[in-house]
What does this fold into?
Amino acid sequence: MRRRDFIRLLGGVAGAWPLAARAQQAAMPVVGFMSSRSPEDSAHVASAFRQGLADEGFIEGQTVKIEYRWANGDYDKLPALAADLVDHNVAVLVAVGGDVSAAVAAKATKTIPVVFGVGSNPVKAGLVASFSRPGGNVTGFTLWTVEMESKRLALLRELVPRVPLIGVLVNPRFPPTEQELLDLEPPAKAVNQPLFVARANDDAELEAALASFVDHHVGALLVTAAPFFETRLNRIVGFAAQKRLPAIYQFREYAVAGGLISYGPNVAESYKDAGSYVGRILKGEKPADLPVTQPTKFDFLINLKAAKTLGLTVPPTLLAEAGEVIE
It folds into this structure.
């Protein structure tokens, strides 16, 4: 081969490499990840999601790209976030951080596979036909967090049994809220426990709600399940500590951040399952054939440092029941 032809051949090969690289990059599937929560309070669950993907052979930045969209507790942003991801023609749309996110995603597309994360019954919400056979383009997990408010109330009363008034913080824009309140009524009436309910959907309402607890002299606080409250976790935990209010929360992150007590599902496990589902869908499985998963692990944490600060003695029965005690 003449030297001039050899150089021309090398030039042709070199020119083809960028095209091949671009083709490989274009072939990398893109997953849309939309959450009602914020990246700061979701770092651990997002990591669990990526682990689930990795278990199926999909590594972020190597074999899959993830487009993240965060509402930071503002549910009104969700429709635009979903529309943006649908316009990007993502291979799978993950909608987590509560029931609002899931409902918006399911409405935004009937063709792109959707993997949701909710806290209530997805069948009653109309997201799926059944737990075992979801049907359509939607599946995911439920945490059943909204089903646990009566349990949290019982734990709080066991810790502080003679509180004249318990404050209940709810988010009126969170769809399961009314059911949460209905579930709290029977156990509260059974033990003659008065409740004072305050509602908050944004920062101004949250400040007003917290002030109302002080004005009504509540003696303890139950923070109900709602994604907005996770995005304001430090503010709520700080308020309870400042006002010396025993409080119970749904997720372990509250207790780790200084909250007194938390009881709820192990969220990281469910997010890991969601990552696995996304990987399986990318491999060709159908959402309609993937059963909605339910939590199998529950976290019950007691923060003894917070209890000491509040001057509380935790009953031995509660300590024995707790899965983790923070000294």
Residues 146-265+299-326 form a domain with the Rossmann fold fold (CATH 3.40.50.2300). Residues 1-25 have pLDDT under 50 and may be disordered. The CA atoms of residues 198 and 212 lie 7 Å apart. The radius of gyration is 24 Å.
